[in-house]
Amino acid sequence: MQWFSAWFGGFAAFLYPSFGGHHRPASMDLRATPSGTRILIMALLELKNLHVALEDGTEIVKGVDLAVNTNETHAVMGPNGSGKSTLAYALMGHPAYEITEGELLLDGEDLTQMEADERAQRGLFLAFQYPHAVPGVTVTSFMRSAINSVRKAKAGGDDPIPIPEFRKELMAAMEQLKVPREMASRYLNEGFSGGEKKRVEILQMAMLKPRIAVLDETDSGLDIDALKIVAGGVKDLVGPNMGAIVITHYQRILNYIDPDFVHVFVGGRIVEEGGPELAHKLEAEGYEAFTPEVVK
After folding, report:
1. Distances (CA, A) of 227 to 54, 71, 196, 233, 235
2. 287 Cβ partners below 8 Å, 6+ apart?
């Protein structure tokens, strides 16, 4: 909670090695030009041999390579206790999780020494598995403060969003995500149901327009109707200006998001990679087949 308060204060005062048998460097991506020529380009988000440890020195993430671009959805799937949430928090700069080795790059810039608010200003966003309530701060106030902080960082000085523009964007996003209008005046997440909290997380993502969104088990605790709305919101937002990492241990949210890549995360490592068919295999067979690769 202490880190969340610091993150909120900073944010509101400012949030492949192989596929199908073919190897590609984690920092590069193959793209086709209009003429059909295949070219290599640098990935927007790059994790290079990333190691993460707890404050007591216990290593949880044990060398992860991952490359994510805009217009891509990457599903990171693994059993409970595999280190998925640790990876998410480390990407966002949680002080309880130290990057002890490797690189975390966004558009070529090293983020490893940056605070959470600095990473958010540069375009990283984390949707929490268990969003905290913030008494005394309305959804509207939080959204506008966060947007203005991002705009200020980009402009190098105050550049507040005009109130009419903000209200128009907020109302449109709330309608799309089926968030009742009256929630805009309520304190952030206070008394919200699980589904309402998750919708507001995606609402934040829609308003802040991050370059890379990390969703930490956003499907947790959602009924099927809320799951469809949240997943639909994510799917609509991934495009030329945003890529996403969807962390989950169930396949069901992927029925509505359609990941481009699936990464199996066991024992703090990515042990297998593939396309959407890999998620269906995991749903049918579980993670047992991958456990021996990291537990010797």
Report:
1. 32, 21, 11, 10, 12
2. 78, 79, 264, 266
CA 211, CA 91: separation in Å to the nearest integer? 14
Give the up-direction half-sphere exposure of residue 188: CA atoms within 13 A in the CB hemisphere. 23
Residue 53 lies in a domain: no
> CATH no. for residue 221?
3.40.50.300
Give the 3-state secondary structure of residue 227: helix
Number of domains, the chain: 1
The reply to whether 44 falls in a domain is no
The structure's pTM equals: 0.84
Residue 22: pLDDT above 90? no
Q: Where are the beta strands (DSSP E) in 55-183?
A: 59-68, 73-77, 97-106, 109-110, 124-127, 134-138
Rounded to an integer, what distance in angstroms lies between the CA atom of residue 260 and that of residue 263?
10
Q: Measured between alpha carbons, how far is residue 284 from residues 83, 262, 288, 296 in Å?
A: 22, 15, 11, 24
Q: What pLDDT, in 10s, does the model give residues 249-288? A: 888 899 999 899 999 999 999 999 999 999 999 988 889 8
Q: How far is CA 136 from CA 141, 142, 178, in A?
A: 10, 10, 24
Q: Which residues pair with 54 in a beta bridge?
A: 97
